[in-house]
Task: structure prediction
Amino acid sequence: MPESADPKPSVIFRALDSVGGMCVRPLAVVGGVSYLIRDVATWIFRSIVRPHVRFGRTALVTQLVRVGARATWIVMLVCGCVGLILALQMEPVLAEYGQTNLIANIVGISITRELGPLIAAIVVTGFAGASIAAELGTMVVGEEIEALEAHALNPIRFLVVPRVLATTIGLILLTVIGDVTAILAGGFMGVVFLGVPYELYKSNTFDAIDLPDFLTGLLKAGVFGLILSSLACYHGLRVTGGAAGVGRATTATVVQSVLAVILADLLFTAIFYSVGWG
Result:
């Protein structure tokens, strides 16, 4: 009697292949982004030590305007709303203990340490990260990247470096603006609607916010900007499959950037807590 084919091994192999792909793909992205960051750092170093090596300073200014200036009002709006929400949410809890004036401390610390850089990074991910991936992906589909290489122009040098630098610098500046906006919005809510004296609110805010709190927030913002811009450039340059590939790259950029930023924030928080800064 002929032996019947057993379908179980193929099912097992497909399951193992699926699990292996789930494990390998994130590592491939991490490795690719790491190499991209290495190349960006190399070109920046060369531009510093060799004045004749340039990476497109005009493009850097253009990207700063797009990433920073045009996203300013969105970051201010979101951070301002968060400041108002924090003040309103904390008031009932603190009022039970007669400590309504501590709203200033909570708003100041939470914004400068965590929420300011995190919110700015998420806004910039949707505002600039997706557009960078789509722009580079369209250039790949239109064979513009190949045209640059044919003219001996390095795409990393002229396309990626300005975008990564602009996003990193722009996110740091946007974080400062977002911090100030959220603290002012929380102060407006606390003083005008919750009855906290203005001088008391101001003194509590300055007493609560230390220089390490502010600087760690800016450090986070810089790393977040580096992560999301590198992911956007990585996915943009790896586009295949025409317009559908551009859409997939844009979606992957937004999803992975938000996830990577949150994981990086968790890592930073754990490190700062362990050294006594948290």
Observations:
- The chain has a mean pLDDT of 88.
- The longest helix spans residues 8-49.
- The chain has nine helices and no strands.
